[in-house]
């Protein structure tokens, strides 16, 4: 099977499952959303008190299990880390802020488009703009350094977390919070969500589909291989929605579920997401998969996502159907400025390190 066709089919599996999960009860235009689902988990664990978005999403657990099992079976499970972990945490934090101002991760952006939400098109333009800016730093030598081998237990931390979350979901202890209304109360059946999540995890791990990587490679090296996976997500999700969710399909800007029409902040929120994703080397769903196959740096990034989600809801940064909040707008502006400064600092430091290395070689 040709590489492009293979990527298209892998993406199609993910897009179709997004439509199926929405049909089975997940929130509108939110069959799968890594940012929203980690946000819901943060709420269920009591890290924020927004009562309408608290639920341990089994899709996340399934993605972790699927990615872990298939990577272990195929030899892709490699335990590594130690590459600018604190910077990765901060980038994950700000990535989540941008996503919750837009109201969705890059994957949900594609799924929103697949059900007719044109606000997501504005977000797509912002996402590509952020990636384009990030690519300019890559061209100038931006790097977070090489990862090194870590103790094998590091690689099992994420799967263990998934097991604990599954136990909480099934047992429902009193200290775990579950929404009784709003998006957090809307969910497909647990077992089906777990199984479909695992299939998504396997597809993502085998294909290495990454929303940021697809656009980054197209811009940086004119390689469209991964972009075909994103096309597959959109096309199959659109077809799935037209067949399974036709009654909810609505082409336009107004009245879209869990979305707002503040175009500037949809654009800038996703600009921040795109910029952070390129600097991290992967979007939220790619980071989740990498963490599941032993990458400790990706695990730290996901921790940044979770803390960012809690911070966003505790301090009124997350948007709602009414639009972006004043705090959220300010946070996006601060995030873009800070991340640009951080990336510039890394580039300067990398150039100094190369210069010193050359001097040592010459003097030696």
UniProtKB/TrEMBL annotation:
State the UniProt keywords alphabetically.
Answer: Membrane, Transmembrane, Transmembrane helix
The answer to whether keyword Membrane applies is yes
Where do the TM regions start and end?
7-25, 55-74, 86-109, 121-141, 153-178, 184-204, 225-244, 264-285, 297-318, 330-348
Q: Name one Pfam family in it.
A: Sulf_transp
The source's superkingdom equals Bacteria
Cite the InterPro entries for this sequence. Answer: Seleno_YedE, Sulf_transp_TsuA/YedE
Write down the NCBIfam families for this protein, in alphabetical order.
seleno_YedE (TIGR04112)
The protein here is known as YedE family putative selenium transporter
Natural source organism: Tissierella carlieri
What is the primary gene name for this protein?
Answer: yedE
